Structure formats: structure tokens, C-alpha cells
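Follow-up to my post from last week.
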Amino acid sequence: MAEVHVIGQIMGASGFSESSLFCKWGIHTGAAWKLLSGVREGQTQVDTPQIGDMAYWSHPIDLHFATKGLQGWPRLHFQVWSQDSFGRCQLAGYGFCHVPSSPGTHQLACPTWRPLGSWREQLARAFVGGGPQLLHGDTIYSGADRYRLHTAAGGTVHLEIGLLLRNFDRYGVEC
Amino acid sequence: MEPQPGPIPAKMNPREEKVKIITEEFIENDEDADMGRQNKNSKVRRQPRKKQPPTAVPKEMVSEKSHLGNPQEPVQEEPKTRLLSMTVRRGPRSLPPIPSTSRTGFAEFSMRGRMREKLQAARSKAESALLQEIPTPRPRRLRSPSKKELETEFGTEPGKEVERTQQEIDSQSYSRVKFRDSARKIKPKPQVPPGFPSAEEAYNFFTFNFDPEPEGSEEKPKARHRAGTNQEEEEEEEEEPPAQGGGKEMDEEELLNGDDAEDFLLGLDHVADDFVAVRPADYESIHDRLQMEREMLFIPSRQTVPTYKKLPENVQPRFLEDEGLYTGVRPEVARTNQNIMENRLLMQDPERRWFGDDGRILALPNPIKPFPSRPPVLTQEQSIKAELETLYKKAVKYVHSSQHVIRSGDPPGNFQLDIDISGLIFTHHPCFSREHVLAAKLAQLYDQYLARHQRNKAKFLTDKLQALRNAVQTGLDPEKPHQSLDTIQKTINEYKSEIRQTRKFRDAEQEKDRTLLKTIIKVWKEMKSLREFQRFTNTPLKLVLRKEKADQKADEEAYEAEIQAEISELLEEHKEEYAQKMEEYRTSLQQWKAWRKAQRAKKKKRKQAAEEHPGDEIAEPYPEEDLVKPSPPEPTDRAVIEQEVRERAAQSRRRPWEPTLVPELSLAGSVTPNDQCPRAEVSRREDVKKRSVYLKVLFNNKEVSRTVSRPLGADFRVHFGQIFNLQIVNWPESLTLQVYETIGHSSPTLLAEVFLPIPETTVVTGRAPTEEVEFSSNQHVTLDHEGVGSGVPFSFEADGSNQLTLMTSGKVSHSVAWAIGENGIPLIPPLSQQNIGFRSALKKADAISSIGTSGLTDMKKLAKWAAESKLDPNDPNNAPLMQLISVATSGESYVPDFFRLEQLQQEFNFVSDQELNRSKRFRLLHLRSQEVPEFRNYKQVPVYDREIMEKVFQDYEKRLRDRNVIETKEHIDTHRAIVAKYLQQVRESVINRFLIAKQYFLLADMIVEEEVPNISILGLSLFKLAEQKRPLRPRRKGRKKVTAQNLSDGDIKLLVNIVRAYDIPVRKPAVSKFQQPSRSSRMFSEKHAASPSTYSPIHNADYPLSQVLVRPFVEVSFQRTVCHTTTAEGPNPSWNEELELPFRAPNGDYSTASLQSVKDVVFINIFDEVLHDVLEDDRERGSGIHTRIERHWLGCVKIPFSTIYFQARIDGTFKIDIPPVLLGYSKERNMILEWGFDSVRSLSEGSYITLFITIEPQLVPGESIREKMSNMLKKFESQEDEKLLQATEKFQAECALKFPNRQCLTTVIDISGKTVFITRYLKPLNPPQELLNVYPNNLQATAELVARYVSLIPFLPDTVSFGGICDLWSTSDQFLDLLAGDEEEHAVLLCNYFLSLGKKAWLLMGNAIPEGPTAYVLTWEQGRYLIWNPCSGHFYGQFDTFCPLKNVGCLIGPDNIWFNIQRYDSPLRINFDVTRPKLWKSFFSRSLPYPGLCSVQPEELIYQRSDKAAAAELQDRIEKILKEKIMDWRPRHLTRWNRYCTSTLRHFLPLLEKSQGEDVEDDHRAELLKQLGDYRFSGFPLHMPYSEVKPLIDAVYSTGVHNIDVPNVEFALAVYIHPYPKNVLSVWIYVASLIRNR
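User reply:
Got it. Predicted complex:
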């Protein structure tokens, strides 16, 4: 019966080599969690930074969960995409991070990665865009054997998340 | 010395023994004189040795050996040194008991004893004297050479010893001896003085630490001291025994002088020459060594060990795997290695516990995992696991659909399906000649024959029969006595029954064979005769019957034998049967006899009884029927049976004298050439030549390709031989071939459709077999030549009997397979597209390769495969599969309907699911976020559960409960209940679509962008600045529009400006039924006249002008707020008042979507205020006014809020909905005539009110979702021609460009969601005959009646939940079935009726007030246009100012659409002549002619007569309900019903219905007055179409009749329901209140 409010925003992303970025995000929880209100997933606008290399989205996240257990603590997963000058979109990075478990405001930085692919694919990516993508999106946050992937580092997604917990102490969880 | 590497404790004993033996030998070899003593000594020594505990370690032995190395040393000394050395090496604790044992062991030995005593003495001395002395470093220095020596001596030994085994000891010792010898040979030199200790000895002596007391740790240092200091003494003692020889002193001295071991050794060097002898290198021959090695080493053989050796005696190997146990996979070990190991184990450890039951070495399953657990160094070629596979995607243009859902789709692939169409064979074709028909038949029969022949079932059955008979024979054989008789009998019985069965089958088969052969011959004969008759041949078919002669005699014998066998069997059967019957007979006979006896006895009794009571006899019943005496069964006759058998044999079997006939069909015959054929045949052949056939390939019902058109051959075979490669993306849904035939140059006709199965994924090109699919067509073809046609009866006989009818049919041979890509991968869409079943469970099993992917979905197939492939059920790898199969096959096994995703979840849960679900807060939050209507925009959910009322959910739960329950009490007849349910479903589906459309955002929805002013606008505004200011000419300023976001309750107001009304009914002076007005009635007139003014009451009747006829006021109610105007006077009042009503959005949600769906209605009711003087006494008139105000309802106008919202303002004059009869009121024409200027208005009947309604502040109406919806709807499938759809889009775009506000409709959505062109809805449809019969000659009246009928169908907007967005158009028959619909359906039906009445009628799309966008019907009659409102049944002339239709968008006829391109769109100002292209833009024009679209409407409408009885029943029920309601509404008063009045009213209602509520007022009034003259009467009839009860109740309520609280009021209520065809009901409710005049 404990409740968790996740309120915050996806500030933006930095460190990506591409410039026009947008982000698809989602929050994944275990079976014990029930979304009371809010939207589980979404997509930000495309931001083309004029100054600096940080893309700012300031995309709001407002979720209210009820949970009957600690397992499957919510985790955020991201797909950062970039849009090129032709309006084509390609993947720039995958990433995930857990929602913090202590109440309060948190600044999170979620590093991202993207699959590398063969040299041919890398070459193609460099010249004509596109690139390898995961067939199954849930590999981002689950996937015990991700070690088979060859990845390249992407940039970092920055988050500012405020967390409100309720009734956890009633069940012996101190926070 | 280092301990030997890894000595095994088990080997220790042998080692020790060996050492002992070595010493013995050594002693033997010694050349010491004192042999006997030594022998003794050795014996002695052996004893303690044996007593020595086994803890003796190798170190000890080594040290011992070092002594043994000294050839001459005195033996008796040995134990001690050994002990000492031992203690040195091992530390104090290891040897506790030795000193004592050795002591006892040597006790008898005198010399030894003496020595010990001396030593003892010396020790004590030394202890006392040199207790404190520190040991000198000497002994230590001495150690190094000793070490060296030791190494040289024994360096090789340990290695050798390791290899030694017990068996080898002898040889070992031998070599050892040798070795010693050689060592000795070198050493003996210094021993020349025999009495002296050798250098070696001395060295040892000095270097050893003497630690005699191993236990006492304190003693250790003492011993050391002693060892260090008392060298001499010790030496002395030691020397003593050999002291017999001389030179002891000298030696002693020498030693003392030497004192130092080094010096001593140096000294030794000096005399080296004397001691050293040169010897050849010690060499062992290779032979010897090999020999030795062979003795030492064990080399296991590589031969396979026979199993019996590995297993215990008399044990058979047992193979667990064969017994079904899971054994696992053994690790790979080379066979030879295994053999070596086995041999070794057999040798070394004969216990055999190393071997398993199967005689193999025990082994665990292979522990090596199939994949490495560490990431491999990936090279690019390596395959990556499927889940982690990445896919290169091209950078794609972003598609906006379903955008914000993160998902990974299936890889789009290009897959290929190869369809090979090899040919087509007609089994019947219209151009078949009779001969062809026969030939086809013959070919078919021959095929059948071949197939049967191949199977040869008869032969098989015969053999079986034979075998069975043999079995019976052997079973009966008495030579097999070991089985019990019972079982024999049983099996024989079984055999026999089987014989019977088989015989029956065989006979049937044989008969079939025979008849088939017969038919073949018969057909062939027919064919031959036909050929002869027509004198030409068409087909090359030829049948040859080959006779195979058999040995007649043998044949006959076999035949006879068979018959005999059968006979005997039958006889036996019969016998059995007979016996059985006999048995039955006997028992029944017994019964019968018993019964007879009883009967007789009874009779007797009865007789007696009858004598006693003669009256009772008749009453005696006969409970038992007479039993018939059973007849014995007849025995069977052999002759009869034989007769039967023979007959049957003759029928079904080849008789022995007949030869076997083998038919052979060949195409060897020749076809008669054309010039020899008759004309008819030639023309037939010509016709055949003209025909050609091609096939279309349809993939998912879309044509993808077609074959070339091939001419039909004379043999009606067409060869295509074409392969089509279909590049596909998705899993195919259907694959169809269409067979088309072309005759000459005419258009092709579709013969038939052939559905091809979609191949399994295992079927790839090259492996697919060619298959034949049959097709047939139901077309009827009659030909004028020899061809027999298709679907036409024809006959072979001359007289035309025996007619045959054949349909065109044939076979297509084809093969469909998946193509194989360049790299050998079949191009098959992934399995996931077909279905995502239990892929994961089966991932590991390679069932896919064996049964194909489609097989995986078929449990039975899968189970079969599992059974066939002998899956190991115990193999954990197969566990998921096995479970699946067991579940699938057994069915009854428990199938868990869950699986645990998070295993320990339950244990760690805070609360249970139930508790979580019970939480009201969570539920409320959840429902709110789901936007459930009841909770949408619910504000402030309480923090604690306890603060949430249970009743919050009540409404919601009730709604959920009621969703599926149709309240029969609301819907009185079941039909309407069903319709309501259906409509509910339709509405829900529409809402779902709407919700989808709502999520579909356009850029404009998100971003409001001010338009950048262009130069012209800029210039204009600049120009305006320079304009002269004209303050006296005010200009309209646009109101500011407010977006819906920042609004809250109370911000929005609804402004209703009521301007004026026309033609309000006026009160009529009550006239008593006796011509003279009664007092009271006059009073009434007086009162209301007198109260407001000073008019004299006397003038009331005489001067209508001077009288206040009516005092109307308007009451506006909206959202439970009621406002009313002041009271005006007269029938044409002018109020000019603005009423302000607050608006509250549902749940405070002011979003656009929410506002659009507001369903509230603004009610504008017009009342008459009547003042009654209640003064009892006239005398008080001067001092007080006692009046009662009564309000009489006159009529109402309803305007839905959504109309106001969308139109922003409503401005106009509306017709007031006034009941046809208002008692006490009349619309006096004469009054109007008095005012001449108003006479114009009298043209239109009825009362009107002018209103202006708007919302303050003005709301942005929110771009209607219609646009989005229409985009959405375009995606709905359509059966319209693609071209037409494109044209409609173009047309609409063009129209919207010119006049964006005018409604233009070309396509609509039908009830199943398909887009349909609108003109298809218009078609003449017959109105009910009943209506036509009413006014057979008056077309106008009929039209009105029809319009009335249409208006009686209840109006039910499907747009009610979201103002005017999505219309589903139902066809007229659906509409009549549903008995509900909105404007469009009414209009369509009315238009269709008018068309069938022969009028020129159009559907008119436009805007009306108050409906908004709507559909009307336009008709052309006698030189003028009439506009019909289909929902009310009213009609208006084109120039009627009160026509609610305000603008016209387009006209729709049955064959065209015309869009209004005139400047104005008001019906008053436009020309309806659609033939003028300048005024009306037509859809179909010369460039796009009307293609002749067929209608979606039915051929004609069928009307059931309405059930009068049901209507009457309904009428009663409604009356009852309404009466109850009225009583409920008056809780504080007594409600009395005036029955007399009610019956009068009831009598009156049918008349109203008949006259449609017109022109009856006067009669009505007169009638009423006559009957109820004593009452003051106020009431009116209400007329409504019937849909539900609730609207009726609301209507009655809204009149406010029940509000009268005069104490003596009485009520009257009558209901009349007039049924029209198709269950359309017209409901009349008459409500009245009566006040008795006193």
C-alpha cells in the first residue's frame, strides 16, 4: 500500500556527437507496482541546441505508483534519437537508470550506449545514417547477457527527479 | 634431506620391511668375523623393528640408511643412532616409546648394557658439570660435508624408491646390494685399522645431535650440550666394543687432534691414493634395465576389456538408457584412453566399483556447457544470440503514427513466395461434346480403378481371412495343451468374429471392384456406340481389355474351397445362434408355464370370490397380459445357406471360368479430322479454339499477377508453366487463383476461384510437390453446337431420358513454396508474424525442422512427433516440451493458468493483492486517471482511505452492473430493448474510435502560431491608421476569445436574450355548457382581467381588444438554474431581457473535448401567468388583494448547449413547440386580423420567439474533431472504386477551398464502418401501404402523412456524446429495424419515400437552428420548393422566414451531388435549380460520368403490421406509470383522479391522432365543455414518438401540471398509443387539471 510519486523532468542530454536529439522514455516496474496515474512512457521534442552541446528537453515526468513490495523498483529507460537535416531519425543511445530509492530531489545522469555493429554497418552509419538497433527494447533494462553486444558509448541523459514516498515505514522500510 | 614427494601412507609398511631386509643382506655380506653375534644382533634388531609403530616416517629410514652406508660400523650402535637421528629430524614429539622398547630389547645384551651404564654416568656427569655451557659451533660446521655425503650416497635412491612396488622388492634389494657393494668398494680404505671408526662413522657421530629424550622439551637443550661437550666420552664408549683391536688411542688422539671434521677430511685426502681404485663406469645393460622396468612398471593394455570382466559374476549388463532412465551425455573420451583406464582399474582395484551397471566406467554427464560463460573475443562472423541481435536500420523519415510507444517491430523483410502454375485441366467444360463427357468419365473411372488396383484391398482382406482361418485351425488344435481352455475359447471366439467382419469387408471390396470394372466397360461401350453413331471421334481415348487366363481347374478348386469354408463357417454361426435361441426359448417357455399355472390358480380363486361377492367380478382388473406361448426356433438348413453363399459369390466374385479382365486406357486412338465431321461438331471445335484461359493470382485478395492467356486445347488442357515470385512483407492471409475464360475478343469471365493453401515454412522451392486443386463453377452455359454446355441438362439417349447436368469443373496443378534467398535462407516471414505461441518453450527442441513451424501450433502433431522421435522424457532439456505435450494430449491434467515471474514476490509483499485492490484511495486515483466519466476531473482525492465515502463508487458500480442488463421496465417491448442494446454497442465502438482520433494530434493542436502579417495586411492596417476618426459611427468590435485552459467554475456564463414572441395563444373565455356563463366562470374572466388593469369586467367578452388576453413570461432553465423574465402582456409580448445563467462544465473540466460533449439543454419555457382572486368576500376587495398566481404552460423551445458552443451565438426566431390543444387558450385568428400589420405573419401557423443566445466570454469552439475524424475515417476500408474515392477527395478539397463553411458530403461511414458513396443511400423506397391508402387521391396529404410517419421514428443522435462529429449512416431498413436514428437517417428515409411517390426530392445538407449541421429534404412541387424537416415532419416553403434551415451546403440526389457555389447560402436567397452549373457544382459531370452505382438500400421495405394488442397493453402501462409519477411529484397533496374526465379525454385522443392534432380545437373544447362544464379546466395533449418511457415522464413533468396546489384540484390523464407499421408508435398523453367551480 506504499505509494511512490516520481515527479521530475528529463532535463536533457549532453555528450552526444549528434546535435538534434530527442528521447523516448519509459518507466518499467515489477509486477507488484501499480500505476495510479500518470503516463508510463513518452517522447520528448527534438531539441537542436544553439549554444553548447547540451540538448534541453525539460520533459516532465509525473507518475504515481502504488506498490505492494519492493521488488521491481521502477527504472527509467531511454532511447535517445537524433534527427538529421533530412528529418531522418537514427538511434543515438540506449540507457537506463533506477529511480532513486530515497525521497528528495535527485540529479541523475544516465549514461547511454548504442550497439556498434559490424564495420560495414559502422561505415554505413557514418555516411548514410541509420545504424543497428536492438530488436527487443527490453534488453535495455533487463537482458542478463548483454555482454555479447559490442557497444559504443553515447552521451548522458540528465534527469532531475523528485521522489515522494508514502507509507513505506509502515511496512518496515526506512527511508 | 627432503621428504620424498607424496609418499602414500599405504606404502609405508612395505618400505619399512624393505629397509629391514636390506640391512639383513648387508649384514650377511659383511666380512666381519663375528658372524654369530651379528646374526643374533640382526635377530634382535628385527624384533624391535617389528614393534616399532607404523608412524615411522621415511625420514627415519633415510637416516638409518646413512648409517647403513657405513660398512663396518658396529651393529649394536645402530638403534641408538637411528633413534637419535630420528629425533633430530622429526622433532621431539614423534617418538615417544622408542627408548624404552629399545632398552628392553637390548637388555640381555651385556655389552650394550654396560655401554649404557657408562653413557648414563657420563651424562649425569656432564649434566652436572656443563649444564650452563653453550654449545659450540663445531657440530654445525661439521654438518655441511655430511650433507654432501648424504646427497651423494642417496641422491638417487628416493626416486627409485617411489617406483617400487611390493612385488619388486626382491629385485630391488638385489640392485640395492649391488649398489652398496660399489659404495663399499670405494669406502673401505680408511677402515684399514679395523678397530677404528671410519671417517664416515666419525663424522656421523659428530654431526648428529643427540636428543635422547624426545618427550621432554627441556631435556633437549641438555642433550645438545651433552652432545657438544662429551664427545670424547661418547667416543670412548662407542669405541669400546671394537676396542679389542689395537690403535684405539691413536685414533682417538687423531680425532682429538683433528678435532675438526674438515681437518679430518683433509687428512683423508692425503691418503686418497691409497684408498682410491679406478673402476669402470657402472653400467647396466639396456636389457637389464628393460627387464627391470618391466618388472617395476605396469603398462596397461589398450585392448578393449570384455564386459564380463568388468561386471560381477553372472551379471548381465544393464543399459539404463534403454530402460528409459535419463543418463545424460557422457563426456567425450577417446576409446583407447578409456580402455587403458579400464585395464588399469581392473588390475589395480579389482573391487569393480568403478564400473556402472552397463559395464562402462561411471561418468557424470558432460559438465561442459555448450556455450562459454565468458565473453568470447568476437569476430564479426560469429553469430550473436537471437535476442541480442541488432538490426541495421536505415535512417528513416519519421512516421508520426503511434509515435510515443517504445517498441521494436518485426524486421521488415522481403519474403518471397513462389507460385508455380503448371497447368489446368478441365474435367468438364461447356464445350465438351458428349464424347468428351464420356471420355472424362472413363478417365476418371480408370484413375479410380488404378488407385484401387494399387491398393488391392480385396487381396489383402482375402489374405487376412486366410490367416485368420489358419489361426482358428491351429487354435483348435489339441496339440497345444499348455494354455487353459478358457483362453483358447476366448481367442477363437475373437478370431471368429473377426473372420466374420473381414469376410464382410472382403465381399464388399470385391463387389466394388467388380462393379467398377463393369462400369468402365459400360462407359467404354457407350463411348464406342456414340462414336459409331456420330461417325467421328473427338478423343483419342481407347480402352483395351486384356484377358488374363488362369488355370481353370485350380481356380475352380479354390473357388469351391472358399465357398465351402464360408458355408461351414456360416453353419457354425447359425448353430450357435440356434443354440442361443433355443436357450431363450426354453427360459421363456418356463416362464410361460409358470404364468399359466398362476393364471389358473387365480381364475380359480376368482371364481370362488365371484361366488362370494358376485358384484366384485367386474371390478377385477387384469394386470398381466396374456403371455403368448413361445415357439421354438427353427433349425437352419444347410442347403439354404449354401444357396445364399453361392448367390453372393456369383454376384461379387469372379467366377472360376471367367478370365481376369485388366482394362488399359490409352490415348492411341485417332481423332477424326475436321473435314469429316458434321457441321455442329466443326463449330464446336471452332468454338473451343476461340476460347482461351488465364489465371489471376490473388494475394490477400489483391491481384498480384496473372498468367498469359493460353488457348484451350482440343483436349481441354491448358499448359501455363509459369512461376510467379511474390515479394511479400507479411505473412500471407490468403492465396487465390481465379480462372478466367475469354471467348474470342469478349471480356473475360470469371469461371471459378481456387483457394491455394499457404505452404508450411518447411516447403521451399524445389521441394514443393506439384498439387492439383479442383475447382468448379456454377455458371450456366448453353451452346448452339455439339457442346453440351454447363449447368444445362442433356442426355445421351435419343429420347432425351436419363438427363445429366454437369457443371464446369477442372483441376489446376500448381505448387506453392517459399523461395530461397541468395545465402540459402528461405525467405519466410518470421514465425512471430504467424503467431507468437510457445516459441520460447520450443526453442531448443528442433521440432521445427521435423514437423514444420505450423506443426508447432498443432498439439496433436507435436505430440505425435514427440512420440516418434522418442524424446527422452527425463531429459531436463525437454521438460518444457514434455509438459506441453502432456498437457495437450491428456487434457485432464492440471494446467496452471499462471507462471511466476518474480518468484519470491509473494514472500516480500507488504500487503496482499486483495488488500491493495480494496484500497478506495487507489481505486479512486486509478479511475480518475482512466478518465472514467464519473471520476473525470475529480478533485482532491483524500489522503486516507477512511475519508473516502463508500458511496463514491455506487453510481459507477451500478453502471457497470447495468451495462449488460437491459432494464425491461424502461423498455416495455423486447424489440426496443434489443435495439437499445445494439445501439449501445454501436455507440461504444464509435466512442472508441473517437478516443483514438482524440489522441491523434496535429501540429496546430500543440502550437498556436500567430500568422506572420504579410504586406497586404500590413498595408491595410497602416492605411487604417490614417483613416479619419468617426466617433459617431461605432464599429463592432470582436469579442476576445478565451481558450479553455484557464477557466474555472463561474467564469462562463450563458447569456440568453429574450427579445419578443409572436402569436402566443390567448386565453379563451370559458363558456359554460349552458349558454349563459356561470357566475364562477365569469368571475374567472373578471379576475384575470381585473387584476392588472382597471378595465371593467363587463367588457370582457364583448371587447376583446380591451382585454389582456395573456400574460406570458419566459422561464429559461439550464443546468438546474432557472431564470425567468418579467411578465409581459398580450399575445405578442416584447421582453427584451437578458438572462444570465452560469455554466458549469462537468467535473470542472473545461477542456475542449469536455465542453464538446456537454449534453445539457437550454429549456426555454413560455408560461402564462394567471392570477386568481381567492378573496372569499367581495366586501374585502377594497382593503386587500388576495390572489393566487398560477402559471400555465404554453410551450417550449429546447436548444442544446453543444449547438450554442459550436455556433458561438444563436440568433433567430424559433417556433415554439406548443401542444396542439391548449385548453383554455386559443390562437384567435380574428384577433390577429384586427391588427392589420401583423397579418403577414399569419401565413405561418404557430407561435414564435426571438432569441439571442451566446456564451460569455466567447469560447474558442475548439476545432471540431470532425476534420480529424474524417482523416481517421479515410483509413476505414471501403468497397468503393479507388478512382471514385480520389474524385471525392478532390471534390471536397475544391469545395472546402471555395466555401469552407458549407457542408459538403460525398462519402459517409456505414454502420459496419465502411466508407460508402453517399448517393448509394438514395433510392425510391415504398412507404407503408397503410399510409398510402389513407388519402389515395391527395398526394400532398399523403406526403405529409409520410413525413409524419418518418418523424414518429424516435430521434436518437449518435452524436450526442460529442457534438456532431461522427455519423454512422444506416440504411433505411436498418433504420426501421433499429427504430432510432438521427437527422440523416430520417432525411434519407423521407427522401426515399418522396422519390417513390414520384416527387423530385433531394437530400439537403446544411445548417439549421437549433440542430446545427443537419440534413433536410428538399422537394419540388408545383412550381415551388418545399423544405422538409424530417425529424419533426414539418415543411416550409423556400421563402418561409421561419424556416429553421439557415444555410444550404449541398444537395444530394440519387445520382449526383451538387455543391452550392452561390454567393449566399440562405435558402431564402438561393436558387435551387441544380441544372445551372454556375450556381451548383455537380460531382458527376461530363468529365466524370455517373458510373451507375448500385444502391446500398434494399429492394423494397417490408412492413409488419403493428401489434395492436401490444400497443394497447403498452398504453395501459404508460398510463399507470405516469399516474404514479404524478402522485409521486405531489408528495404533500392528495392527488385525485377524475375518472369521468379521463375517459372523456381518452375518447378524444384517437381523434387527435387522426387529424394529426389540427383543426380539432373547437370541437374538442365544445365537447369538453359539454361534459365538464362545472370545472375550471387546464390541460393539453402531448404528442411524442415512442422510444422509451423516460422521455414521456420528462415531458409530463416539464409541463408542470402537477404543480397546482389548489386544495380541491383533480387530475385527469389519458394515454393513447397509435401503432403504425413497423412498430412505430405515436404516443399521445393528455394531462389536465380540473378545479371544480363552486
